[in-house]
């Protein structure tokens, strides 16, 4: 029973991450970072090296095309898990 539980939990986690990855919008920022905007309106920041970066909610960011965006949420852990799955478990 335990042998079946672990693979099924991993599958569920990867399926949830895949679903969340499909429902996100990537916004390039002027500073070279990338903003991940999820379907639920929360956001996560990825630095120019591809690492999740924390940001305070309410912080103003500028997109490459000059628009201003306000940080909503701080989904650093969500982005970290997503990037690990996308990279095959490597950081």
Cα distance spanning the termini: 31 Å
The sequence of SSEs as H and E is HEEEEEEH
What's the total number of strands?
6
Radius of gyration: 15 Å
**Class from secondary-structure proportions:** alpha+beta
- Give the total of domains: 1
Keywords:
alpha+beta; two-stranded antiparallel sheet; four-stranded antiparallel β-sheet; 24% strand; 35% helix; 91 residues; Thrombin, subunit H
Provide an overview of this structure.
The protein has about 90 residues and is an alpha+beta fold. It has one domain: Copper resistance protein K (Thrombin, subunit H), CATH 2.40.10.300. The chain is built from 2 helices and 6 strands. It has helices at about 1-20, 75-85, and strands at about 25-30, 35-40, 45, 50-55, 60, 70. It has a 4-stranded antiparallel beta sheet. Strands 5-6 form a two-stranded antiparallel ribbon. A hairpin with a 5-residue loop joins β5 (about 60) and β6. The longest helix is centred in the first third of the chain and has 21 residues, at about 1-20. The protein is globular and about 35 Å long. The model has no long low-confidence stretch (mean pLDDT about 80).
């Amino acid at each position: 029973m335990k042998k079946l539980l672990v693979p099924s939990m991993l599958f569920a986690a990867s399926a949830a991450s895949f679903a969340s990855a499909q429902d996100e919008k990537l916004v390039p920022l002027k500073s070279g970072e990338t903003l991940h905007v999820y379907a639920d309106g929360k956001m996560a920041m990825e630095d120019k090296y591809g690492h999740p970066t924390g940001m305070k909610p309410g912080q103003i960011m500028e997109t490459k095309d000059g628009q201003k965006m306000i940080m909503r949420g701080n989904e650093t852990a969500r982005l970290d898990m997503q990037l690990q799955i996308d990279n095959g478990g490597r950081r």
